[in-house]
Amino acid sequence: MKTKKEVTIYDIAQQLDISTATVSRALQNNPVINKNTRRKIQEAARELGYRQNTFASNLRKQKTNTIGIIVHELNSNFITSVLAGIEKVTADAGYDLLIAHSSESFKKETANVLNLFHKRVDGLIASLAFDTRGLDHFQSFFDKNIPVIFFDRVEEKADNTKVIIDNFKAGYQATKHLIEQGCKRIVIVTASLSRNVYAERLRGYKEALRERQIKFDENLVLIKDLSEKCGREAALQILQMKPRPDAAFITNDFSAAVCMQTLKEKGIRIPQDIAIVGFNNDAICKIIEPQLTTINYPGMDIGEMAARNLIAHLKGDTDIRQTNTIIAKSELIIRQSSLKKGKK
After folding, report:
1. Residue 121 near residue 68, CB atoms below 8 Å
2. Distances from the Cα of 294 to the Cαs of 166, 208, 226, 232, in angstroms?
3. Beta bridge pairs of residue 151
4. Structural domain boundaries of the chain?
5. How many CB atoms lie within 10 A of CB 196?
6. pLDDT digit string (tens) for 148-172?
7. What is the domain class of 167-297+332-338 according to CATH?
8. What is the distance between the alpha carbons of residues 89 and 30, in angstroms, rounded to a whole number?
9. DSSP assignment of 77-130
10. CB atoms closer than 10 angstroms to residue 34
11. Which of 16-30, 53-67, 69-83, 311-325 has the highest mean pLDDT?
């Protein structure tokens, strides 16, 4: 089948017997061209099937009006809410998004960074994979002064703009709450400690124990991938521990819900036998029975903060290089899964 020739401004100009400059200005809605002429040209463009070549136009301007996003997964309520926050801000500012995900692979993340660099995105917002080491693979962006903002999983010590919560404080609050419920043998189920979010939550857990003079036991630290399988595995490990833990702080709500359900199937009462706290405040917290105590991790706010700061930099209103770390507010939301006191 023969491909139909792409319609150009020259075709529109020829049909209407006007100059290409007039057509070009009218298609950009330039007020220099009177309203009736603009309408006539735009109608002709629609009838002929004209498509504006924004790519070529943007290349001439050295700008694509596109922002790259790199996330470590897509199957996550938290990431979905972050993307919603980014999209809300970028759409209002007239930017398109190119989204890539690493599937928790440093190798794939590196390829994504290079791909988005060659796609000439104006800026980048990224959250790192479990096994990412350093930020050398972002050097092409840094060398070209293309702004990069990291969120959630970041290189804490690197001199880059990042949007995070106080993970140490969140881990501390969750553990302190369980201790206040009378719990003394608290399991923490977390992920790769090479990532700032999990290392800091563990540090907060340890500090809450230390403050209450409860000895830290490394056997109560379970390092997993925070998947559905992880939730089941954690529950079975908890059941085999002697003496059995009286609480679990699981740093992901979905894993916490699966763990809780598995424990209940084995005859464990929640929270009477084992109190549980999750992390993120996903929708599943209100669906599981009993409802899950959690840390509210405001993904929408984080996405908006990252996008707003990036666009302000692109517009020249601010310089993100002068802002190292932006802290979003998180909070402990107490529900029935952790309330041992008053339970029989």
Report:
1. yes
2. 15, 17, 15, 19
3. 163
4. 9-52, 64-164+299-328, 167-297+332-338
5. 20
6. 999 999 997 788 899 999 999 999 9
7. alpha beta
8. 26
9. HHHHHHHHHHHHHHHHHT-EEEEEE-TT-HHHHHHHHHHHHHTT-SEEEE---T
10. 10
11. 69-83
pTM value surpassing 0.85: no
Q: Rounded CA gap, 50 and 160, in Å?
A: 43
Cβ burial of 313 (10 Å; 0-12, 13-18, 19+) is buried
d(CA 328, CA 70): 20
Residue 146 to residue 343: CA distance in whole angstroms? 56
Alpha-carbon distance of 228 to 91, in angstroms, equals 34
Do domains 64-164+299-328 and 167-297+332-338 share one topology? The answer is yes
pLDDT at 344: 41
What pLDDT score does 13 carry? 87
Distance CA 270, CA 263 (A): 8
Per CATH, is 64-164+299-328 categorized as 3.40.50.2300? Answer: yes
**Residue 74 pLDDT class (50, 70, 90 cuts):** confident
Q: Reduce the DSSP state of residue 250 to 3 states and report it.
A: strand
- CATH fold for domain 9-52: 434 Repressor (Amino-terminal Domain) (1.10.260)
Q: Tens of pLDDT along 31-41? A: 888 888 988 88
